From TrEMBL:
The keyword Membrane does not apply. Residues 33-52 bind DNA. Keywords: DNA-binding, Transcription, Transcription regulation. Transmembrane segments: none annotated. PROSITE patterns: HTH_TETR_1 (PS01081), HTH_TETR_2 (PS50977). InterPro entries: DNA-bd_HTH_TetR-type_CS (IPR023772), Homeodomain-like_sf (IPR009057), HTH_TetR (IPR001647), Rv0078-like_C (IPR049484). Pfam families: TetR_C_41 (PF21351), TetR_N (PF00440). This is TetR family transcriptional regulator. Residues 10-70 form the HTH tetR-type domain.
Length: 200
């Protein structure tokens, strides 16, 4: 029996995720056949079982990859914004705009809920922690009203996640996105400290 190197094992894993990502996006989780998926990857069911255990395990890995990419995109918005408040508010709006991207819509917002249930505690904690760090910075600069940052981060993350799902599940997605962006702007306006007024 030929032992595969670590690099070959990683290559096989990456190929399975790449193929599954495309197939899950095109067909939806429930319609995907493991035989068809592994055939498209040029691999065996055994390779899939070795790396991911089963179809659900592979799907969970795909969701994790897309989540990480979304997080990197959102972080780039924060990092390249003209000021911290613009970075935070643009990041919140961008999250809702992602709800109209077909791959994110089908895999992360629809199928992940049905297959994996609610977001895992680890994924949810990561999202809340990212927002909490940003809010703590905004509070330190007197841009956002001082309050418990973790509580506020949890509230904003929950609102964004549910609104994104609402947008993804609507037949009138452009209108829902517009309404969602208007609603999140109201939320953001509510946590921001009033700007100082100029005196004549």
């Amino acid at each position: 029996m030929v032992r595969r190197t670590r690099a070959q094992m990683e290559q096989t894993r990456a190929l399975l995720i790449e193929t599954a990502r495309r197939v899950f996006s095109e067909q939806g989780y429930s319609e995907v056949s493991l035989d068809d998926l592994t055939a498209q990857a040029g691999l065996t069911r055994g390779a899939l079982y070795h790396h991911f255990g089963d179809k659900k395990g592979l799907f969970q890995a795909v969701v994790g990859h897309i989540d990480a990419e979304m997080d990197a995109r959102l972080q780039a918005i924060s990092d390249h914004a003209e000021d911290p408040w613009a970075g935070f508010s643009n990041r919140c709006r961008a999250y809702l705009e992602m709800a109209r991207e077909p791959e994110i819509q089908r895999i992360v917002l629809r199928d992940a809920r049905a297959v994996l249930g609610a977001p895992t505690p680890a994924a949810q904690l990561h999202c809340v922690s990212s927002l909490q760090v940003l809010l703590e910075g905004l509070m330190a600069e007197n841009i956002v009203v001082a309050t418990a940052p973790q509580a506020l981060a949890s509230m904003i993350q929950g609102a964004l996640a549910e609104t994104a799902l609402w947008i993804a599940n609507g037949a009138d997605q452009p209108e829902r996105l517009e309404q969602g962006l208007a609603a999140v702007q109201l939320l953001l306006d509510g946590i921001r400290r009033p700007l100082p007024t100029a005196h004549a």
